[in-house]
Amino acid sequence: MLELEHISFDVTDEKGQKDIIRDISLTIPDHKFVAITGPNGGGKSTLAKLIAGIETPTSGRILFDGQDITGCSITERARMGISFAFQQPVRFKGIQVLDLLRIAAGRELTITDACGYLSEVGLCAKDYVKREVNASLSGGELKRIEIATVLARGKKLSVFDEPEAGIDLWSFQSLIQVFERMQQRTQNGSIVVISHQERILNIADEIVVLAAGKVVQQGPRAEILPGLLGTTAAVGACSVLEQGGRGE
Amino acid sequence: MMDQIQKRLLEEVADLHTVPEGAYNLRANGATAARSSTANIEISSKADGSGIDIQIKPGTKNESVHIPVVLSESGLRETVYNDFYVGADSDVVIVAGCGIHNCGVQDSEHDGIHRFYLGKNAKVKYVEKHYGEGDGEGKRILNPGTEVYLDEGASMEMEMVQIKGVDSTDRKTKARLAAGAKLLVRERLMTHGNQTALSSYVVTLNGEGASADVVSRSVARDNSYQKFDSRIVGNAPCSGHTECDAIIMDKARILAIPQLEANDLDAALIHEAAIGKIAGDQIIKLMTLGLTEAEAEEQIINGFLK
Lengths: 248, 306
Prior knowledge:
The structure holds two protein chains of two kinds.
Chain A lengths: L1 E12 L2 E13 L4 E5 L6 H9 L6 E6 L2 E2 L5 H7 L1 E4 L11 H9 L5 H10 L4 H4 L10 H15 L3 E5 L7 H15 L6 E5 L3 H4 L4 E6 L2 E7 H8 L8 H7 L5
Helix pairs in contact in A: 3-6, 4-6
Chain B lengths: L3 H11 L8 E6 L2 E6 L4 E5 L5 E6 L4 E11 L5 E10 L4 E11 L6 E11 L4 E11 L6 E3 L2 E6 L4 E10 L3 E10 L4 E10 L4 E10 L5 E10 L4 E10 L3 E11 L4 E10 L4 E10 L3 H9 L4 H13 L1
Helix pairs in contact in B: 2-3
């Protein structure tokens, strides 16, 4: 279980201080698929980074299975069982897909194991294991590999930051299936997905709506989703294309 | 005949545990320690004692030549000329390499001059590794000179690696290509401490359809200095590409000078050069997979130089 207690995060730039997250308290229960949505600039990606340890809160505490991890590094949190899929996956010259999956799994994966994870995200494994994770891969391919690394880790809490961002409609359709399969297996761990996508919100157990750095709504899907339909917090696939899947 | 140090150097530079199969010439501390020729590949000493000639008969296929050099005596300086005459239509692998162990106070230096003359349609894969070790104050110096002459349709793939322990290197490579000839160079270099590495290429494309691809990937750490100077000259309808991609770390310095010279309307030449530090998001990504910052950095470098 992940608990955020009165988390605030602000940044100071030339325009002065800006509150990105304002006193958020939130619980991600075990074995749940939780979607976090809300308008752009509402603080969703920042919240995901605070969970992974990429950003440190200005105030408040983060507890993971009851343990205070507020001061823990990215590495420590990763080793405790938190996984994070980037909104914009990182490219590496020379590192192969297989290398990345091995690092993620923390063990010597066989080619067959690696192929299993790649098939899971809809990539024809034999075409990809030896490919470098570099600029030769498309945005959609990278995104799927990013998700495969999270699957290979198989940890207790997996956080996905806008999996739909920057990919084409065709890739998006098959990504949804990947998340649908994950949803059916939440007994293995909790999933947090930052998303505007109606189809992702539609498979969530719980939905959290974030706006202007605050939680404005939170509850089971059946309660929250009807009020979101038609707003920018729950868009159809075509609007993703129009927006170019832009993040914040 | 060889001691443990020499055996380890041999393993580092040529992946050899014992004497190799096929033709070989092993040079240890300034003298030939072992040699073997085969029916198709003959290795002989030059009359003036300055090095060796390697004659490969036309049509020789799937054979290999190993010519490793190991230096374990401090203060040894030598210049050796190795000339390869590769007959037409042959297809061979040549493995060279030099390992220096210097635990003394005097500098050890090996300057290997390799000249390759490839006949028509001959094909060579050349692998060269340089390695240095030993904790003495004496420097480990390697200044290889390589000349490549490719006749019509010949092709040569060169893999040159220097990852560790060489204090100073000045590497000069020249190549001349006739029509339809093809040269592929993959250089990987890492410098650390106060090392300096200079690497220059001049590749001249003289015949129609000749092509060259010269790519260097390097990592400069600590206070080291690297200079990569690559020039491709197109004198005929040809294609050439050169690329230098470097990671800079700590207080290192890197100078990249890609140059192109086109003397023919149909010479298509491209160069690329990039120098940059390791991207912060690469480190963060690997940390989210459970690596520490230092482990992430090593992983990125190892992948880059793989």
